[in-house]
Every structure is written in structure tokens, then in C-alpha cells.
Amino acid sequence: MILFDAIFNQQSLDKVAVRFEQQQITYLDLREQTLSIARALSFLNVERGERVALLLNDSPEFFTSFIAICSYGAIAVPINMGLRPDEQRVILNDCTASVAIVEANLAEALLADQELPSLPAVVAVRRVEEKDFTTEARRTQRLHRENTQRSSSKKVWWLDELLTESESQTTPSFSPPAADQPAFIFYTSGSTGDPKGAVHRQADIFYTNETYCREVLKLRDGDRVFSSSRLPFSYGFGNAFSFPLLNGCTTILCREKPNAKVISRVFAEHKPTIFFGVPVIYRLLLDHHRDVAKLDSSSLRLCVSAGEALPAHLGEEIERTLGVEVLDGIGSTEMFHMWMSNHQGEVRYGSSGKLIAGYEARLLDPVGNSSPHGAEGNLWVKGSSAALGYWNKPEVTAATFVDGWVRTGDLYRQDVDGYWFHMGRSDDCFKSSGQWVSPVEVEGVLLTHDGVNRIAVVEDFDSNGLPCACAFVIKANSDDDNVELEQQLNKLAREKLPRFKQPRRYVFVNELPYTATGKIQRFILREGLRVSSSRFQVSN
Ligand code: 3UK
Fold first, then answer.
1. How many whole angstroms from its chain centre is CA 452?
2. How far does residue 302's CA lie from ligand 1's centre (Å)?
3. In order of start, what are the domains of the chain with their CATH numbers?
4. 443: Cβ–Cβ under 8 A, 6 or more apart, which residues?
5. CA distance 17 to 225
6. Residue 511 Cα, ligand 1 centroid: separation in angstroms?
């Protein structure tokens, strides 16, 4: 199967595929644009297997470029726009992209970047709706000047001009991929360390559509989906690209980074039926709803959360406030999308729900034996959407992909009813008084206090150098007194947790560090504690 056919061999191509700001783009429009990009790839002499990077905001051009690249037989590499330029450069160099399709404002920097040896061509997208002619005339001049100066190294194109230039090119024919032909690479940084590129096949897109999308989302005609997680994160990709487009639905894209204000505007203007977010976005959305402006959630039939465990009480608060269930599920870049999820009508808040048909899961103890039923263990998963491995990283690949199983790095336990509970990342857990502490468990308890808005628990060391828990807290009301709140949190912890899990220290902060995909970076907090707590902007 080819992605192009799977999306465009639909009964009606007149339906709206994308709502992008004020534009409504049909499947037919997307199809035409995809074919012209395929001609442009052929014009640029891109070869099968070559990497084409995408540095694009969520936009129709992201879709058409991605479909064209994969169907053409090259390898698409979407890069997260929330990363710093030096982090993006590491990815461009790791995958040795030969072409990058980019937002206009990034083109010059990429052209001038001497440390990007492998990138011979840059294609810059200028958008009709943001046409400010003066800025654009200046940009065009600069790009042309760069072009002449650098004709021997990198070549730059405006996408629209490239498409006109390659119009007379014969449209390349798309052939079905070989079983293990790589089609795209999604980079993941995990919670620490260097980015790793998970290499996927087109088939992985179809597999997640047949499994998670069919079983859990049950998309129907007329669904309009909106994801605050962006397309270069495989969660956002499934949510806002492959699921809606493979099922003839409409996806709502927004160019801006979706914060609570933007999301509430999108709700009011575009009336999504399904919303996908990560826990911190839900927290910010509920705060905005309470403090700034009421959210119009009248069109919603379902909410989804992933990326991190959704604390039980936050799940309940979302359902109370928005009036629909929120389905927490776990997936990963390596597995492409979800393998476990809550299901409508049988949600258990605080759990990741049940295994999705088409996936297997097992829990192993640290030496590799099966954990006894009900006990905690390291989660391994198996399913046909697993990546072929990491790009150019044989050792890490061998440690993560073993005999068809994928090591997730997550600790889980399963209850008697078959619900799975996330107990933290194996690398975030620590021992206190010789016993394991799972930060997510302690956070879940303390979050039930009304005075806490967000919290992150990490390993700290007491005055004797012994490990203990430390809680970083963002208060719900900035006027609350720190000492008083700390006393109340201590009391709550004493009531609900064994002594070794109770935090020995509380640090009140205004912000917590997050990755570009919305995960708390506990390692930054840990490092900060090691250096000095004064590194944090402490509140009050
Ligand atoms: C953690 C969760 C508890 C977990 C992702 C849905 O997050 C995604 O991919 P990443 O590669 O990270 C994977 C890791 O994130 N995680 C994700 N969801 C949950 N932990 N509860 C959850 N619901 O540690 C996992 O190993 O960034 C999520 C779909 C596609 C994705 N890529």
C-alpha cells in the first residue's frame, strides 16, 4: 500500500480535509499539491532512500510534502519546530538530509550554516496568508543573493517557484514499497540524551490506523479533530494527519504554537469533535477556563491524553469541566502510536487503560524474568508498528529492539481487571530507605491538594547524603503561604504514603521545565538540586 493511494483513493475528494486558519482545503486540493511536490522532488533529482527534512509548522504543506516524499520512495524526516536551532542541526546532520523543506524564516539561517555539510538544497515555503510584501521582497532579494554567492554549495528555492519550474516534469509513478523499506524517521530525545531517529515504514501508519484508531477513536464521518501536539511528534502525526486523512475526516491545523488562548479560540471557531492533548496542556486549559474565559466545548465528543501519565484527579476535573471523557493512553515514537489506552465507557482515571488488539505486552524484572502477576515490572511491547530500529545507532537499537520486543523504559503493573498502571520511568525511579519510590505515585497523591497546580517529584539527598524525595510545586494560588502549604502537604503525605515516599523538601517554583513534546524534564530538576536550589526561580 502507498500512502498516496490510501489517502486519495476515497469516494469523495470534495470533502474538506484541512481547516487551516480561514482556509478550507479539500482532499482534491491536497492531491494536486502532493503530485506537484512529487514532480519537484524528481526535478531536484532526489533519489529513493534519500532523506528530505521538514522544518514546517503544522500546515497543508507539511501534509503534501510528507505524502509526496514517502510515496516517491524517499525518506521524510519531520523535525520539531520547538527545538533550538542547534538541536535541529544535530538531527539534520544525523540523517544527512539532502533537501530541507522549511518555513521561510528559517531558510537564511540554514543556508548560512557552515556546520551543515550535507544539505545541498533548501526549499522555503512562503505563505499566502502572511504575505507582507515588503518583508517578502527583502527576503526574496536576500535569498537570491545567497543563491548566487553560494551556487557551488547550497541551492535555495521558493517552493512556489520550484513547483512552477518543475511543472513540465513527468509525474513520477509511485510503486508499493518493499516490506522493510524505510519511509520516514521520527526523532525522539527521550527524557535525557541525544536524539535518536526511529525509522518507520509506510505500513506502520496503516497498522496504527487499524488498531488504535479503529478500536479506540472510532472515527466517523463529520469528525473534526484537533491536536495540540504537533505533527513532528508521532502522537500529533497520528492524531492530526494519518487518522483523520485515512478516514475522510477533517483536521484542524493551526500555525501558531497552541497555548491555552489559541486552543480556546480554535474550539470556538472550528468546533472540533475530538481534542488531543498532553497533561500539562489540559492543566493550562482548565486554568484558562477558570481564570480567563470559558471554553466552548459544546462540539466535543471525546478527549485524548498521552505523552505522560494523566493524574487521576486531573482526568476527573477535565471530564467534569468539558463534559466528555478523556482517554489516557500510552504510545511511543518507537511504536509510532498507542498500544494501550482507556476506552469510552470504561475509563479508569489514573490508569493507561487496557492493551489494544494487535499489541502484546510483558513485564520483566531487572534480570529479565517475568514479574509475578500484579507486581511491578519493566514494560516490553510487541506489535507490527514498531520501528525498524534507530537511524545509524546499532548499539542503542540492539538494546531497545530485542527479538521482536521493544523495551519501553516504563515501569508498569496490571490490576486484576486488566487495567495497566504507569509507575514511572525506570530511570526516574529511585530508592529511599532501600525501597523504590515512583515519582508519579507521590505526585498523584500531592496533586489531590487544592493548593497544588503542578508538581514534579525527584530524587534528592538529605543532610546525611541519603536519598529522599523532593517536590517542586507550582501553587494553584500564588498568594498562598509557602510554610502553611508545606505543612498541609506534609500532613497529606503522612496520611497517604509510607514514610520513605514522603518528600523531605518542598521547593515552590513558578515554572517547571518541559521537553518540546510536553514532558517534565525531571533530570533538569535533579541536576539543579545537585548544583544548588538557587538555580530555580523560587516563588514568594
Ligand atoms: C511516556 C506515557 C504514561 C512513556 C507518544 C502517544 O509520548 C509519546 O512518545 P515519546 O517517544 O515518549 C514515549 C514515552 O512517554 N508516555 C507516553 N504516554 C504516556 N507515560 N502515561 C501515558 N499515557 O514513558 C513512554 O515510554 O515521546 C504517545 C502516541 C505516540 C507517541 N509518540
1. 26
2. 19
3. 3-10+25-176 (3.40.50.980), 197-425 (3.40.50.12780), 438-538 (3.30.300.30)
4. 311, 455, 456, 457, 471
5. 11
6. 22
C-alpha cell at 2: 502507498
Instruction: State the helix-helix crossing angle for 482-496 and 439-446, rounded to 10 degrees.
Output: 120
Residue with cell 512556489: 160
Residue whose Cα lies nearest atom 9 of ligand 1: it is: 332
Q: Torsion-angle region of residue 358: left (phi > 0), alpha (psi -120 to 50) or beta?
A: left
534: pLDDT strictly greater than 50: no
Out of 235, 314, 334, 338, mutate this one to test ligand 1's pocket (max ligand atoms within 8 Å of CB): namely 235
Q: What cell was used for 324?
A: 466528555
> Rounded to two decimals, what is the model's pTM?
0.91
CB 232 near ligand 1, within 6 Å: no
Task: Kindly report, residue by residue over 22-50, the tens digit of the pLDDT.
Answer: 999 999 999 999 999 999 999 999 999 99
- Write down the pLDDT at residue 151: 45
Cβ atoms of residues 56 and 81 within 8 Å: yes
C-alpha 27/C-alpha 36 separation (Å) is: 14
Check whether 343 has a pLDDT greater than 60: yes
Ligand 1 near 329 CB (within 6 A) = yes
Instruction: List the residue whose alpha carbon is closest to atom 8 of ligand 1.
Output: 332
CA 331 to ligand 1 centroid distance, Å: 5
